[in-house]
Amino acid sequence: MAGVTALTFAALCLPLLGAVLAPFAVRVFGANAAWPLALVPLLAFVHFASLLPVIAGGEVITGGYAWVPSFDLRFSWLLDGLSLTFALLITGIGTLIVLYAGGYLKGHPDQGRFFSFIFLFMGAMLGLVVSDSLLMLFIFWELTSITSFLLIGFDHEREAARRAALQALVVTGGGGLLLLAGLLLIWSTTNATDLSTLLQSGDLLRANPYYLAILILILCGAFTKSAQFPFHFWLPNAMEAPTPVSAYLHSATMVKAGVYLLMRFNPVMGGTPAWETLLPLFGGVTLIVGTLLAIRQTDLKLQLAYTTVSSLGLLVLLTGFGAPYAIEAAALYLVAHSLFKGALFMVAGIIDHETGTRDITKLRGLRTAMPLTFAAALAAAISMGGLPPFFGFLAKEEIYAALAHPDPRSIAFTLVAVAGNTLMFAVGFAVALKPFLGPVLATPKHPHEAPPLLWVGPVVLALLGLVGAVFSATAHHYISSPTASAIRGSSSVIEISLIPHVGVPLLLSALTIALGTLVYWRIDEARLAMATILPRLGPGPDRGFDYFIVGLIRLSVRVTRFVQPGRLELYITCTFLCVAAILLVPLWLYGEMPALPVWPHQVQIHEWAIFLLAVLGLLSVVIARDRLTAIVSLGIQGFSVAIIFLLFGAPDLSFTQFMVETLSVVILALVMTRLQLSPIDRRPLGQKILDGCIGIACGSGFALLLMKATQGPFNNALTEFFNTYSKTIAHGANVVNVIIVDFRGTDTLGEIAVVAITGLAILALIRIRAQTERKLAENDPDAPEDLGVERP
């Protein structure tokens, strides 16, 4: 197991290594850099593929390294059927995407940067699906949002790309924060810090009193990431990214992260009425909305993007449906969708790359010029349409076997699935057939077959869809059944083959094909109908996002103007109010007020003199007629404290206090003499009373807190530690100096840095003032007037 742990860790780090090496590889190999770079995900794929026999045998591989042992936090991974399938999809399709990007972006000046981003994205997604630690899962979850932001906004000079990237980041990042709250609730209520422990807890989460809150928070994270209605709008807009990103995003990575999360938590959160209501409901609505919007589009990538939204809705519906075969259908469709959607997106990119357009109404007759691309597109469309002999057929048959039951709920969702699959059938074949059949139309670029780097990806994925169906028994043994078992939380064996279910599922499949063919035949009329209906429904969630951002900005401006009006005295008042509340409220609220001390009869006469001196200094500050006198009088307080330190046996601390007070008085006096301030305090009486009350509250709070601390039992563990080790470790006899310089060396360095930065800031202000005075002396009209310097 030690060897497997080391290899797994290396496989997880390979994409990050690829991100570092990518720019250098592009410089060295130029247009051929994709070939050596593709070895990075390929090696990871080979490692994960070597684990298939072990996982198919029912084992679960865990491993990792301690990160913060005191909090039971580890960098750990969990490899079972579900995570291994995702890892294979991410690395396998990632290998093809790297090759595809090498051809698609050939000659692009920022190709090295693109490869770095795609490898970071790959590493983030791979870390997400194999993470065992809940904290690591969240970290990688957010990393997928950040890296997708970089990829979607890759062409950052275009406003549409910047908007799409920002929109994806806001939606998925906001959902990530809600997911974090859900994970923290799980952590705090179950004490489970990793998934392997949580998955063995049985009904612990379902019996949790906070189950509904946890469920809603988890669903918010999953729905935003996997573009479920009403958060579906960001995904089609992400098509502003280059096509390699779109193909990877939709087939194997980010958009399936939410589906992965729901599948992962199904064993411990599924099976409840809330789970089996919310997931099918939102999944079904997303399925219908996505397909209807897909029919409306003329851009090949947008058509495929909206069908991805539909497919994600179908996966969510199946995950939460709760009927026999539903989990098996979800596992099959997860793999099938990755294969055919990755292939179709690459085909759309090839068409755009070789013809100069993606508008389906302007593409015809490409079959002769691009026969290999046409064959790959047709094979992928057959799988997407659920026709034999491709893997999509197995998935569709299992879907109908799961949904086709006589109860009203099953009938309703069966109709939803038939409608969604019908429209996806039509869109899939429209993408695969419309550009290639019919008379040739002129395109911006002369069409020809794509180079190998472009067509190898769709051809391989299309062939895998065929091979997986023909050798379904082997595919189920190593992929489908382990995946379904992990989702279900118990052993599950999938047996569906190219021999279909006889009965209602077969009739529903035939109905889907017939209706899909009809819609494909009349797809232009269907597109026109949707183009007429959709504007009448209102602006939609995409425009609503713009309204939300505008409203958020306006609200933030108003809040900022309210809490930050530019008045320093208001900021100071609020700060000290908070300090007083923090000190006094907990003491009062939790009954921790200290016992008032008995009047100290043992105070000596000279000590009374020091206290009297401090009181006189305080009165001098209050009644001072100008600020300079108040500053000097304020120093009396500091000197009095320093003398108290000296009397009570802390001469080094007393010396430090003397130095600090002296420097503070001198520096403040110098600054005050350079500023044009009112010589007297012009605050109204009410303001003076308020400020006095706040000052008394802060002082009382500190006094009460210190009294409470001193009345508790003294723990001398640190005292003994410093006395024992100051000389043996730090080689210093002065314990206080050793603490400051050695044991708290970093803290002291930070304090020195703060003082140095403050000094530099003061020096800069003084120089600015000197320059301003010189300009004013020369009657320079460009000199600023906001530094308290009057013009001559």
From TrEMBL:
GO molecular-function terms, A-Z: antiporter activity
BP term (GO), one: monoatomic ion transport
Transmembrane segments: 6-26, 33-55, 75-102, 114-130, 166-190, 210-235, 277-295, 304-325, 331-351, 372-391, 411-433, 453-479, 499-521, 568-588, 608-624, 631-649, 655-677, 689-707, 748-766
Localization (cell): Cell membrane; Membrane
Pfam families: MbhD, MbhE, Proton_antipo_M, Proton_antipo_N
PANTHER family: NA(+)/H(+) ANTIPORTER SUBUNIT, NA(+)_H(+) ANTIPORTER SUBUNIT A
Domain of life: Bacteria
A single GO cellular-component term on record: plasma membrane
Domain MrpA C-terminal/MbhE: 689-767
Name of the molecule in the record: Monovalent cation/H+ antiporter subunit A
InterPro entries xref list: CPA3_Na-H_Antiporter_A, MrpA_C/MbhD, MrpA_C/MbhE, ND/Mrp_TM, Proton_antipo_N
Sequence ranges assigned to domain NADH-Ubiquinone oxidoreductase (complex I) chain 5 N-terminal in this UniProt record: 69-115
Domain MrpA C-terminal/MbhD: 612-676
Keywords: Antiport, Cell membrane, Ion transport, Membrane, Transmembrane, Transmembrane helix, Transport
Topological type in the membrane: Multi-pass membrane protein
Domain NADH:quinone oxidoreductase/Mrp antiporter transmembrane: 131-411
